[in-house]
Design a protein that fits this description.
Layout: E1 28-29, E2 41-42, E3 45-49, E4 53-57, E5 66-71, E6 75-82, E7 85-90, E8 96-100, E9 104-105, E10 113-115, E11 119-123, E12 134-137, E13 141-142, E14 144-147, E15 151-154, E16 159-161, E17 165-167, H1 175-181, E18 192-193, E19 196-197, H2 199-209, H3 218-224, E20 227-228, E21 243-246, E22 249-253, E23 258-263, E24 268-273, H4 274-282, E25 290-293
Parallel strand pairs: 1-2
Antiparallel strand pairs: 3-6, 3-9, 4-5, 6-7, 7-8, 10-13, 10-17, 11-12, 11-16, 14-15, 15-16, 18-19, 20-25, 21-22, 21-25, 22-23, 23-24
Helix pairs in contact: 1-2
Length: 299
């Protein structure tokens, strides 16, 4: 007699990461059929962000924690709108969450340029003395209708400073230099602009400005960016552009000793020696989890 007691049971696959897969009990992305259970599946529709920067939250509640931010001109897949909240997935990095529905437009424009400065203003007329219409941060996506020596006219209305813009496919050569320009920016959990940044947001926007796609959160970045570097305990041999990871934290080496990161200790983007950071963070019981070397760290 054959007993079934010793038969190996199949190991259930872990559910898709809800941060980058759109599914709820009542609704899910059509692409997730067969992977998740939901009452209904839908492909969603493409919409575009029309606000300077809009917080994305895990729950449709203004009191809910800020997970990340979506910038002007970015596109999303919209799955649902209810009570003024849109449930969306960012096309840039796949992040899923809730944003105010009135931040979206169905009138899509194809971006031709991006903001290459840490930030810039959009004016109603080509005059720097005019009261600005809005502030746009690094990597905001815009469509230019007409280019001038000092100002560009945007297809969506208004004028932006020409030297603050770059063709969409023209990137910075050194992502570390971009991060250095953001030193002094206040720390903001979920932030992705010069108004406020968190640790992984700083890494993401700096890499994006250099044409390197990066996921949003530090655990994703540790798993998906660069090549693992084995460094001795004395931390010798580090290079500009190396990413240093702890559980829940990440920063960037500016050279072999100095470490740049957005952190809640200083509540800002700062540069300090790596040994200083390691010593302080170790007191909270956390040690370096990984060091990843980017192949395109700049000069």
């Amino acid at each position: 007699m054959t007993s079934g007691l010793n038969k190996a049971r199949p190991i259930a696959a872990p559910p898709p990461d809800p941060r980058r897969n759109a599914y709820r009990e009542d609704l899910a992305d059509t692409r997730l059929q067969g992977k998740v259970e939901a009452a209904h599946f839908a492909p969603g529709v493409v919409r575009q962000i029309m606000r300077p920067a809009i917080p994305m939250r895990r729950q449709p509640d203004f009191k809910a924690s800020l997970d990340t931010e979506l910038l002007f001109g970015e596109t999303v897949t919209l799955f649902d709108v209810e009570d003024g909240w849109a449930w969306v997935q960012a096309l840039r990095d796949g992040y899923v969450g809730y944003i105010p529905a009135d931040a979206l437009t169905a009138d899509l424009s194809t971006p031709t340029h991006r903001v290459q400065a840490s930030g810039t203003f959009v004016y109603p007329v080509p005059d720097m003395k005019a009261p600005p219409l809005m502030h746009l941060s690094l990597n905001a996506q815009i469509a230019i209708a007409e280019t001038g020596e000092k100002f560009c006219r945007l297809a969506t209305g208004g004028f932006a400073v020409t030297r603050h813009l770059a063709a969409r496919d023209r990137y910075a050569r050194d992502f570390v230099e971009i991060a250095e320009q953001l030193i002094g920016t206040p720390y903001l959990w979920g932030g992705r602009t010069r108004i406020g940044l968190d640790c992984s947001g700083l890494v993401q926007v700096s890499l994006e400005a250099a044409g390197i796609a990066a996921p949003r959160d530090s655990d994703m970045q540790q798993a998906e960016l660069g090549e693992t570097v084995l460094v001795p305990e004395d931390l010798e041999g580090l290079q500009r552009g190396d990413l240093i990871f702890w559980k829940g934290h990440v920063g960037i080496m500016t050279d072999g000793i100095m470490f740049l990161h957005a952190n809640a200790h200083h509540m800002a983007v700062v540069v300090e020696t790596l040994p200083e950071a390691v010593s302080r963070i170790s007191k909270s019981g956390s040690e370096i989890a990984a060091i990843k070397r980017m192949s395109k760290a700049g000069t």
